[in-house]
Amino acid sequence: MWCYSYSLLLVISKLLLVRALPVATFTIDNLTARSVELNPYPDKPRVVFGQDGTFKLTVFADIHYGENPWDWWGPEQDVNTSRLMRNMLAMERPDYVVINGDLITGENTFRENSTSLIDTIVQSLDEAKVPFSSTYGNHDNQINITHIEEIERETSITPFSYTRRSPPGVGGDGGPGNYWVPVYERETDTSPALVLWFFDSRGGVYTNGTSMPDWVDESVAAWIADETKAMNVAWGPPESRSALAFVHIPPHTIQAVQETLNSTVNPGLNADGLGQGSTQATTNPASAGNDSPFWDALNTHVKNLRAVVSGHDHGDEWCAREPTYDVIFCFSKHSGYGGYSEEGWGRGVRSFVFRSSLPSDGIDSYILLEDGTVRARVLLNREYR
Ligand SMILES: *[C@@H]1O[C@H](CO)[C@@H](O)[C@H](O)[C@H]1NC(C)=O
Ligand SMILES: *[C@@H]1O[C@H](CO)[C@@H](O)[C@H](O)[C@H]1NC(C)=O
Ligand SMILES: *[C@@H]1O[C@H](CO)[C@@H](O)[C@H](O)[C@H]1NC(C)=O
Ligand SMILES: *[C@@H]1O[C@H](CO)[C@@H](O)[C@H](O)[C@H]1NC(C)=O
Ligand SMILES: *[C@@H]1O[C@H](CO)[C@@H](O)[C@H](O)[C@H]1NC(C)=O
Ligand SMILES: *[C@@H]1O[C@H](CO)[C@@H](O)[C@H](O)[C@H]1NC(C)=O
């Protein structure tokens, strides 16, 4: 008996020791506790650049599973979207995938089985064995479904998911999807070359049917400041790494950017005029500008922010410089057979290919349609205007 307990103790202490190692590596004054979170995936493989030194990230957006399951066309749309995802993954062979919001059209789902659609959505990613994570959108917060339910389902059914929930008190009611994912150039590096940031722009309705704020909660601003401070202490100056940010609903400043597009510099479909509800905090005039704390914090604290990427507006797929912070914004590409669309818009993905891990090197980005057509190719770098 004694022996048994002793060996159990030994096993436990060994486990503790293994878990404690990353902490010891990063122990710096009072940041000891925070450092634990700087290795947020102790049980998962690191996300790394490819053997050739590049990193390809492919974005699916607005896949809108679950429309009208009682009609023939709803389930057929989902079969089609899964086919599109498989085909795109086979063509692109990305190092990482982002699903940028509106995974499920929650208005049409049932309380008892809403999140079982997540199982279908992740199948193609599991088959491709590609690490991925999600932002969640306004259609993912409805009477019969919530962001947190989808996050819990996603992270419980597949080891390839790197989605996380925000720490307590961050993100506001209904907005738990604020987190970041480190990407290393090499498996053994002590600090990442790229940090992927994910923000929860909420929207939709609470389960009681009242509408939810459609912007990233201001509590996220202080969290960005804290996280970047901890990163700088643990990993060194931020100038040595890049960042890329994803949020389902575009920040409100993007609305004005649409007025200044030039089809040479900003190629790609521009068929969705941005108006009320197209960008954050514009559904209700009383909330105008409420996404500013988030937007200001992101652009102030996150250095080498290479682009901010949104979905939500299915008829837009351009990249452009946002002038107030001189930051590149890109729309994703509507990927789902579900969700509104018009003749000729097409469906596909946006990919980003980092030419190297250097923040000064360019990122090739383009839209790839389901039929293999590539369009709206741009080189995103400091010269991009
Ligand atoms: C650690 O935190 C304590 C209490 O907040 C503070 O008094 C102390 O100066 C901090 N130490 C360092 C090295 O920052
Ligand atoms: C599914 O895809 C097929 C082939 O592209 C197309 O003919 C069909 O209309 C699509 N169905 C729906 C419901 O979108
Ligand atoms: C939510 O789910 C319940 C139980 O399945 C169903 O009766 C109801 O119609 C759904 N409500 C909405 C708004 O979809
Ligand atoms: C959920 O349940 C409803 C009604 O019980 C059914 O029609 C629908 O197909 C189910 N959806 C999923 C995704 O299992
Ligand atoms: C609905 O739920 C939200 C979030 O819990 C709450 O703030 C709001 O007061 C509720 N509205 C009603 C009418 O109960
Ligand atoms: C659009 O951009 C191109 C390339 O910079 C430039 O040559 C052209 O003059 C611009 N067109 C307009 C209308 O500003």
Plain-language structure description:
This protein has eight helices and 13 strands. The protein has two domains: 1-37; 47-380, 4-Layer Sandwich (Purple Acid Phosphatase, chain A, domain 2), CATH 3.60.21. It has helices at 2-25, 32-37, 73-92, 116-128, 147-157, 219-235, 254-257, 292-301, and strands at residues 47-48, 55-60, 96-100, 132-135, 179-184, 194-199, 242-247, 305-310, 319-322, 327-331, 348-354, 363-369, 374-380. With 385 residues, the chain is of the alpha/beta class. Residues 1-27 have low confidence and may be disordered. It has a seven-stranded mixed beta sheet, with no helix packed on it. A six-stranded mixed beta sheet has the order 4-3-2-11-12-13, with helices on one face. 27% of the residues lie in helices and 18% in strands. It starts with a helix and ends in a 5-residue tail after the last strand. The chain is globular, with a radius of gyration of 21 Å. Bound molecules: 2-acetamido-2-deoxy-beta-D-glucopyranose (NAG) (6 copies).
Give a brief outline of the structure.
By secondary structure, the protein is of the alpha/beta class. The chain contains eight helices and 13 strands.
